[in-house]
Amino acid sequence: MTPLPADAALHRKGLLITAFGGLMLTADIPLIRLSDGDAWSVLAVRSAFTFVSAMLVWSLIRLVTGQKTPMVPGLPGLAVTALYGVSSITFMLAVFNTTTANLVFMLAFNPMFSALLSWAFLKERPRPQTFLAMAVMIAGVSLIVAEGIAAGNMWGDLAAFASSFILASAITISRKAGTDMGFAPLFATFVPALIGLAMAGGPASITLAEPGWLALNGLVIIPVAFWCLATGPKYVSGPEVAMFYLLETILAPVWIWMIFAEVPSRGALAGGAIMITALVAHSLWQMGESRRAARSNLPRHPA
Prior knowledge:
Layout (H helix, E strand, L loop, with lengths): L5 H20 L2 H8 L3 H27 L8 H24 L2 H8 L2 H13 L5 H18 L8 H24 L6 H4 L2 H11 L10 H21 L6 H8 L1 H14 L5 H31 L7
Helix pairs in contact: 1-11, 1-12, 1-14, 2-11, 3-4, 3-10, 3-11, 4-8, 4-10, 5-7, 5-8, 6-8, 6-12, 7-14, 8-12, 13-14
């Protein structure tokens, strides 16, 4: 089998890393629901577990490899860390203050924001196929929320909208920097943990019926998901990374259905099917581009 050229191989690597991160992130909302706590308690405990996990892994890497991987790589890393920290707070507020349908609708703007920010600041004009995939995905989300968008809380909707824009901004800065930002969103959880703890009224006021689910979420799921999603912009464009965040929109309702027996509406099922089709089609197109690039770079024998 002919090896891919370096750029195509790195792009495929980025797609695989980002897809895995997006898939892991789909477990976040179900695990939050399973913990059965209030918003500030969940924010404090989830963020604290994530920060502890990040510190342990970072220390282990330094101990085993001897590599002095920076926690926050320079000013871009500081900006990305701050953005992820704020998005943790706005996302949690949205989870507890608006409907799931409204939340996923607002988060679906992430690819659009990423495409526009990348176009404006990185001069990465998205290809027509990417614009088409984004348009189809947003149309699919529109079907999901058609039956319940009017029922949301305004502040929860604004928090969800803010989360979408903030994540897109973090992706764009990571893409611009071109450095490894894998630990940035994980160390960013330190501040949300403190804010959640303060708002909850201190450790004695933490209210969680099933904290074990948040331990799984914070120690394993969130660190793996956000490390992958923060590493992706090093290899692939911002809009491509943002599209894999939409896996949560597609699959989280399925997990909620399986765990809590909340049957999705017909609109949700139809919208999810449209989004999955668009995402798979776009990924296959990207793979095809990689193969074509590989063939075009093969050495040619003289006729």
